[in-house]
Amino acid sequence: xxxxxxxxxxxxxxxxxxxxxxxxxxxxxxxxxxxxxxxxxxxxxxxxxxxxxxxxxxxxxxxxxxxxxxxxxxxxxxxxxxxxxxxxxxxxxxxxxxxxxxxxxxxxxxxxxxxxxxxxxxxxxxxxxxxxxxxxxxxxxxxxxxxxxxxxxxxxxxxxxxxxxxxxxxxxxxxxxxxxxxxxxxxxxxxxxxxxxxxxxxxxxxxxxxxxxxxxxxxxxxxxxxxxxxxxxxxxxxxxxxxxxxxxxxxxxxxxxxxxxxxxxxxxxxxxxxxxxx
Length: 278
Description:
Blueprint: E1 2-6, H1 10-21, E2 25-30, H2 34-44, E3 47-48, H3 52-58, E4 61-64, H4 68-81, E5 88-91, E6 109-116, E7 133-138, H5 140-152, E8 156-159, H6 165-175, H7 177-192, H8 197-218, H9 220-223, H10 227-230, H11 233-242, H12 245-265, H13 272-277
Parallel strand pairs: 1-2, 1-4, 2-3, 4-5, 5-6, 7-8
Antiparallel strand pairs: 6-7
């Protein structure tokens, strides 16, 4: 099976390079910005296409690695203008399902294939892509083959239904993007205490890295420490007294969620005083 990519951004380059290095036949790249497609083809040692017709001709499976907002438009343009008979169409959106392919003139087999992985850099993310978890949703016809394809690349794979895609992606945002937001808030608070940005970053780095490693190794329940886990209402009250109204609301919401973990870790501990405070 030869795979072609329409879209030459971070996900397209990372997938293409990872596949190529694991023996997959990657046809190449097409992009509306020709320079991007040329760069992706060079990076993956594949072909640059200046006309999507030739990429469609050369590919058995076509990945639309474009922005979520562009997936429907790009697909329908392909569907109207080319013979997609027996082609497999995939997109890599976390929140969008394969239903975007449902009204195909060519009756293609469509799939949403989302790498649950922070693809932060177009040129280096492939180096750690073996840590990605691949979530697949779509037409039953080739579903088993696609699952086995990714397993053969050494990746863990999960299959979900179309209705679960939005909540699945929200969970990923909680575990990834929101962590960046919370970390940024912590740096800001230390700066408000008089730290420089560099010192604030250094002060939190070891704490964050050790905690992240512990969560990965032990799980969030066993790794949990801190005032909520100890039911230290005195400390939490002091925190609430000095935070801005906006930070206070976020602190309360996160403490309530942390409390759910604390109750699992310490089943015999009475958390009623903390619940009352919150």
